[in-house]
Amino acid sequence: MHRQRTAGLESGCQNPFQGISTKKLIDMAKAGCYKPGETATISWARGLNTLRYLGGAMNQGDLIVKVAKRASISKAEAERAINAVKEAIADSLRKNDKVTLVGFGTFAVSHRRARRGHNPHTAERIKIPATRAVRFSAGKQLKEAVNKRKK
Questions:
Q1: Which residues 6+ apart lie within 8 Å of 6 measured at CB?
Q2: What range defines the domain where residue 104 resides?
């Protein structure tokens, strides 16, 4: 059953433990084939495969494939285009400029003041330096697309 669910993955990622039941993985761990932590990691990774199949995650490779198909261009061209967009956004944010993509959203830089904190293990007080953080605010069309109800 697990093979059928993961067979549709477009990314081509292969699970080395595909076809092995969770019970068998636990039995292997008890027999000493795996450390207890590794068994939990294996189980977690299998859950991720299922999550991706159900539409829970998209990485850059998946995005490149989707853009290439929709724009009828090669994967190499799609990758160059996506990387160019990412670099342009990063360059603008580095200069403290706002990037607004109408309908999609706005990327902006916010400034975090320096503050005092503490190390939870030793209770030692530490200084946390000022930093800049990237903020994203979704646009109206993106919000509507995400909240669109299927009929």
A1: 15, 18, 49, 50, 53
A2: 98-151
